[in-house]
Amino acid sequence: VWFSSKYGKIIMSNFTNNAGGSYGGAVTLNGQYAQVSKCKFNKNTAGANGGAILISGSDNNVYDSNFTSNNCTGSGSTYGGGAIAISGSNNIINNSNFTSNHANSKGGAIYIHTGATGNEINYCGFTDNTAVNGGALYLENGTVVTSNDNEFYYNNATKYGGAIYTLVPINLNADVFVGNNASIGGGAIYLNATGSNISNVKF
């Protein structure tokens, strides 16, 4: 499914074993104000960005959805997002679960590209996601991300950032990190930026 206009909706739908050669194995949101809600994404694959969803537009919402065993197979320097890749701004991911997703490069669950600002991830669960860097989340230069009340359990990176790898300041509020692992450094978070705000977070 490719949305390039405004106000599209995908509700209570299941996407299984779909593949995108490069982007958005199941869905691409290239417009504005789209909603993806109460959906299940299982075992979808993309070669470059977003095993299940690529969000290249702005002001889109994904909520109340489950992402399981999706995969981004590319290993290039701009590839990632086992479940979701975001290159647009002001998008919101709410109340969704990410389990056992994988990226061969960055962001086992979610990869946010350079220059994508104003994105939020709230009330989500990340469990057993894996990548080279950023087992659950990878945040590139120039991004602005707020993370509220998310839970990160047993995510793994083969290099840095078991749960989160970030090159930019991040606002973390009331997040929980349990049992995440990175083979080289940053078992919970690899933070290579100044000015982050970490408040009421449990490690």
Helix content: under 10%
Topology, number of strands: 30
Q: Classify the beta-strand content into a percent band.
A: 35-45%
Q: Could you give the distance between the termini?
A: 38 Å
**Which consecutive residue ranges, at least 5 long each, have pLDDT under 50?**
none
- What coarse outline follows from CA principal-axis ratios? globular
Number of helices: 0
Order of strands across the main sheet: 1-5-9-13-17-21-25-29
Radius of gyration from the CA trace?
15 Å
Biggest sheet features: 8 strands, parallel
pLDDT averaged over residues:
95
Derived from helix and strand composition plus strand pairing, the structural class reads: mainly beta
- Spell the H/E element sequence: EEEEEEEEEEEEEEEEEEEEEEEEEEEEEE
Explain the overall architecture.
The protein is mostly beta strands. Helix content is 0%, strand content 44%. The chain is built from no helices and 30 strands. It has strands spanning 2-3, 9-11, 14-16, 19-20, 27-29, 35-37, 40-42, 45-46, 53-55, 61-63, 66-68, 71-72, 84-86, 92-94, 97-99, 102-103, 110-112, 119-122, 125-127, 130-133, 137-139, 145-148, 151-153, 156-160, 164-166, 170-173, 176-178, 181-182, 189-191, 197-199. It has an eight-stranded parallel beta sheet, with no helix packed on it. An eight-stranded parallel beta sheet has the order 2-6-10-14-18-22-26-30, with no helix packed on it. The termini are far apart.
